[in-house]
Model the fold of this input.
Amino acid sequence: RRLGKNPVYYGLQGTTQQHLGEHLSDIVETVLGDLDESKMIELNEETGEFGGLNLGFIGSNYYLAYSTVELIASSVTAKTKTRGILEIVSAASEFAVLNMRQGEERTLKILSRGLPYIGKDVVWNDPNSKALVLLQAYFDRKPMNPDLKLDCDLVVSAAVKIIQACVDVIATNYHLKAAVAAMEVSQQVVQGRWKKDDVLLQIPHFTDELVKKAKARGVNSPFDVLEVEDEVREDLLSDFGEDSVEMSEIAAFCNSFPSVEVGYEVVEADDVTTGDPFRVSVKLQRDADDDEEEEEEEEDGDEEKGVVVSKRFPAKKIEGYWVCLGDPKTDKLYAVKRCELRDEKKLNLDAFAPEEAGEYELKLYVISDSYQGVDQEFDVKIKVEEGEEESEEEED
Done:
């Protein structure tokens, strides 16, 4: 109805059914052409039939603009690291709508001082440059005015799904190290910390000085805060009152810090043949803290499990893990799956065996998308026998 009421605005030559039909057909053809060119779909120009491709499914899964997925696909390489991931994420089309307020260029320049990934040719009135500055300032925990804080919350919230899309796109190219780099950036975004920061700094109200004090007392992780002797913990946290909000937030984080037990096996390990599919079965079990279990029983399970504790992240998020099978020697990613983990999860990693027979030492990685310092890796040894077709060819 809008087309017919305002034809000039929409570029129509007339308002008849034929004019409307031709206009809509042109729009559809243009959109399909763009999607085909960006490898989101495969379009048969003769028949007009089309089908989704892997990049298209990734964009649809994360509700991302096709231009963002195209950007990711054209930018990631085997050598992509933290800087590359941050630059790709901040360049996403989703951030083109960020508001650029009058005089904000100067504020962004000041905010960018000391940040590691600010290029010399940065355009200060560009929304995507603003997104890059805000992400890094967020990791640095720099103070922001209320307007910038709102913008930063928008960027941080949206960055998670863009990073997840980065992992999926990288996985289509089988790059192990680049995929892990993207996963680690996800942890940075959720906790508001750089990768290089000590894991204790994720705990609310922990400062560099308090971390030094903790290290001197043998406290090296959030688990240790709970497990040390009472007098050691009381001395460490003596600046906070026993019933204070700060102490409550520290306890909430440490009690929620995940401990995940991992079990795995190569299915039919004696029957892995060259070039053929094989499967690794994985089980994840999140060990709830005893105090958490008691509280959950008292509340009849009303408290939702698996919700990430982070004072910095502006949105509710369920704890998730990437489970990957790869070969660090060749930088090959064989398989990856991401899952949310509230209690227990079973999943299968399906991959194709190497083309050459022999013994291979692969790695199974379990990487959090929300917490630093909880990632695990395990050795997975597989013995690959020559397939039947190859054996027959050799006999001939």
Observations:
- Strands lie at 41-43, 50-52, 260-267, 277-286, 320-327, 332-340, 344-352, 358-368, 376-384.
- Residues 269 and 392 are 22 Å apart (CA to CA).
- The domain at 53-191 is CATH 1.10.3380.10 (Sec63 N-terminal domain-like fold).
- Residues 296-302 have pLDDT under 50 and may be disordered.
